[in-house]
Amino acid sequence: MDESRLLLGMAAVFAGTTVLFAMFGIVYSPVLLVVAALFGVVTYLFWTHGTGRLAARVYERVERQAASNAGGKRRRTTDQRRGSGSRQRRAGDGGFGAGPREEWIPPGERRRGSQRGRQQSDPSQRRRETGRDPRGRAPRSSDGPTAAEAYRTLGLDPDADQQAIKQAYRKKVKTVHPDTDGGDEERFKEVKAAYERLSED
Predict the structure, then answer these.
(1) Taking every annotated instance into account, which residue ranges of this chain make up the domain J (predicted)?
(2) φ and ψ of 191, to 5 deg
(3) Tally of domains within the chain
């Protein structure tokens, strides 16, 4: 579940609780109005955080503070650096060797941009990027047996249904499993690969 949806859902629950406490506070006891006010504050915080407004406000405040602090400090440190011969700090550096700062994108805009990109990509492009087909299945391995080899390994006809495949697999596994007497690990791997190949189809 998306974090913003969860926060907005919590805000809705707290808003409903706030209304209930306010109504009971008016009817029964003014003490409940204080509780309603506290729930209202929590509702507001959930809502601002869920919509991304809280992060945007904090970021803007930090940027304003950094800009106001940078004016006096930058002049002073530049003069000190010129005197000591060390390199000047460029605007946009992250400080302490962190490199340039990335541009901040509010959470709501990030989500919208990523959804647009997903909708526009075609299934074959997604398959190349993720290694999976659009239905979420893993790509078939070319290392495994072919369908004909898998049927031969399990001793089945090619027209066998899934129930017959499962029964033949269980019967073979009992005889070739490495934990049984006379079991063969390589043969067990072949039987397992054959069953996996036939259960994919």
Answers:
(1) 149-201
(2) -65, -45
(3) 3
Greatest CA separation for the chain: 88
Strand partners, 100: 93
Q: What is the CB neighbour count within 10 angstroms for residue 25? A: 17
Q: Residue 15 pLDDT more than 50?
A: yes
Residues 159, 178, single domain; the answer is yes
Alpha carbon distance 156, 198 (integer Å): 11
Joined tokens for residue 4: 């913003």
pLDDT digits (tens, 9 = 90+) for 70-96: 665 555 555 555 554 444 444 445 555
Give tens-digit pLDDT for 134-166. 555 544 555 778 888 989 998 998 888 899 999
- Whether 100 is in a domain gets the answer no
CA 167 from chain center: how many Å? 39
Q: What is the pLDDT of residues 62-72, one digit of tens each?
A: 888 888 876 65
> Which structural domain, as residue segments, surrounds residue 120?
106-139
| Cα of 17 vs its chain's centroid, Å | 31
Give which of 196, 160, 158, 190 is closest to 172, Cα–Cα: 190
Query: 93 pairs with which residues across the strands?
Result: 100
